[in-house]
Input
Amino acid sequence: EPEVTQTPSHQVTQMGQEVILRCVPISNHLYFYWYRQILGQKVEFLVSFYNNEISEKSEIFDDQFSVERPDGSNFTLKIRSTKLEDSAMYFCASMGQPNSPLHFGNGTRLTVT
Amino acid sequence: EDQVTQSPEALRLQEGESSSLNCSYTVSGLRGLFWYRQDPGKGPEFLFTLYSAGEEKEKERLKATLTKKESFLHITAPKPEDSATYLCAVGENFGNEKLTFGTGTRLTIIP
Output
């Protein structure tokens, strides 16, 4: 069964450094998302992306965050200058068509020291 | 703002002991209610989508139901492999595809 893949599985970085989290969505999906889950808290929406542009973003997704689909298969989340509070599990998700389920990857655990 | 509340936070059952998990929601217009299973260190795994009050979906030992204000995930004769965190999420209005998640119910099935 097709799946969303994310790399790396764990990323450790120092405060102030830039990180790029990578995702390969399911191949025929058109809608892409990033969510995050701080340890012990709920899964939170960050951003949705469709037709090569952001369709919605949350208050968390400030100017330090950006997303890109650099080619036909990858979808990336960049954090320009990481903060301690960015430490979380970041999940990529994709969806094939409107009103169908989101399919999630297994996440990248980001630890900012 | 969408609100999703799940109860209980944690539930321990003996193997074979059936029970239900609750998800209460408040949205201005429900596009769909989604149940996911999450194992430790993994991403949410899709289980069910419910679109309208009265709808029911079943998969193995799980059955999800929906009313206008809440959804239940019924677990019948659970096995240890059903141990996981079960997440409820709502999608509001067509054209807005983001999901709002509850905090989940951590289910432990004791052999």
In short: The two ends of chain B are 41 Å apart (CA to CA). The interface with chain A takes residues 31-32, 34, 36, 41-46, 49, 51, 87, 89, 91, 94-104 of chain B (CB under 8 Å).
